[in-house]
Amino acid sequence: MNRKFIDVFFKHLFSITALFSVLALTAILLFVFAQGSMPFFTSTASGIRLVTQRIDDFTVNGSRYLEHRAFIDIPPDKDLISIQFNDGAPQKLEIKIKNKEKDPRKKLEFSYNGEVKITYPESYVYTASWPVNPEGPAAAPEKRVHIILPEPPYNFGKFITGMQWRPGRDKVFGILPMIAGTLAASLGAVILGVPIALLCALFMAEFLKPKTAGVLRAGVELLAGIPSVVYGFFGLMVIVPFVKNIFKVPSGNTLLSAVIVLALMILPTVITIAETSLRAVPLSVREASLALGASKMQTSWRVVLPHANSGVIAAVILGISRAVGETMAVILVAGNSPQLTINPLASVRTLTSTIAMEMGYASGRHSEMLFSIGVTLFAIILILNSLILWYRRKIGNEQ
Description:
Blueprint: H1 2-37, E1 49-53, E2 57-60, E3 63-66, E4 72-73, E5 80-85, E6 91-97, E7 108-112, E8 117-122, E9 125-131, E10 142-148, H2 156-161, E11 165-166, E12 172-173, H3 176-206, H4 210-224, H5 228-247, H6 255-279, H7 283-291, H8 296-307, H9 309-325, H10 328-333, H11 351-358, H12 365-398
Antiparallel strand pairs: 1-4, 1-10, 2-3, 2-5, 5-6, 6-7, 8-9, 9-10, 11-12
């Protein structure tokens, strides 16, 4: 009775744990996809917003605000904003809104009394400023009112094919150079690292003595557990100067450095999984090949390796996923310049680097666009893995 009770208890416990794990993963994915799709379907706000600096007493369209530091939302149907300043000398600022105008630089018209300076520090933002004491020194702090226009939904095609990434002043979000940098660094690492990893795995599984192979296997597994920032630091201190000195370039922080570092990083993962798959090939397969007169090398290369293609392809998929998703090491060695280039000695920036470097201070549309980059990265990994699995099925059908 007790044993049956324990079996039922653990059965339900495992079921509940699996259910909550699936729900948690689904919730995370839905949150990321929702955040990433928002900038292409919604505006940043329903209407114009105001925020003040060094103004403690003022009135907006008849509503008085005392020491107000949060946003003031203006209803979208308003075509006039009247601001009266009650502290110090009486001043008034009126803003006429052209609701049908699409160009943010022409959307507002200002009228005011006193010495007021109207600037356009960044897209969709106006700033009205004037000194607290016009008679005082030039360095006296200014009173300011920031008028923030709602940003319309961003064009998805412009996001994917755009050549420039300027989230600050111009609010331009083009990620094509970063997509190209991600693919170039990842595919370069796969082309460089996967053949070396497969040869190492084949050598360990087929040609080394079991004890020696066990020692090397433990070392490779240890390398797989090293944090990526350590690889990045190694690349920064060794590979970057090496590339700089060999190719005589101003900076060694290049695409080539990122490819070499990523190739080193995926080696342990691919070697471990591929070697495990090769060792799992039945001994009878090897014996049959050797009995037909094949050499040890021919058996390993033409019989054992194709027989373990399922595990080898899984190793390649994991290697690609790690290369595409790597962040810290690439930040340290790639140079992080968002430019579209085919020159391996030029600086590049990847999608993951952009998220890591800018998420700490991003807000508003900028933050949403970083989530969109995450969704794009997920789509790239999904497409690459799907292509590899499709090729695997095609090869399997032909055989």
